[in-house]
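Hey, resending since the last one bounced:
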Amino acid sequence: MFERFTEAARTVVKAAVERAERAGAGSVTEEHLLLALLDLEGTPSAAALDRLGVAARRDQVVAALAEAARRAGLTRADAEALAGLGIDVAEIVSRVEAVHGTGALRGDRRVRRRLGGGGRLTTEAKGVLERSLRVALGRGDRYIGDEHLLLALAARPGPVADVLAEQGATYGALERALAKGAEGGEPGEGAVA
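The structure tokens again:
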């Protein structure tokens, strides 16, 4: 599958691995992929995120991802559903952190080993890569670009898609922003051999 990735898409995966290593994370997550996408410039995904104002609100995205990680990856909808059952997720997080330290539920405790060899992706991150292929094929593209990775993140239910949606970057909004870029004559990136 990686042979279909454009240079920008490969850069995203490599940067996600590097982010995970710097953070001491045991594996590469969807969050690492999104943060790597936010670092890109001059690509279709960067242009779409800029059009939607997400790039300008990068700090809010990072804070929202950190908050979702603090909730052990529960989405806001999950937390609200649990609240309906009388379970206060914020209270549980606070109690766990009081005993075990801030970020105890994140699951990203410092790991001394390096990810090396391309890094280990979580099941969710692997799912994003697989979905990016389906997104590309559904759009009639013969390559997998950074824009397909972004759309795959927005399409996959979970905290990352929630954070994107909170910023106005739903799957539909991203598709429209990408289409505007294509109509505007911005150069897209073709397949890398």
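Confidence is low (pLDDT under 50) at residues 108-116, 185-193.

Sorry for the duplicate.
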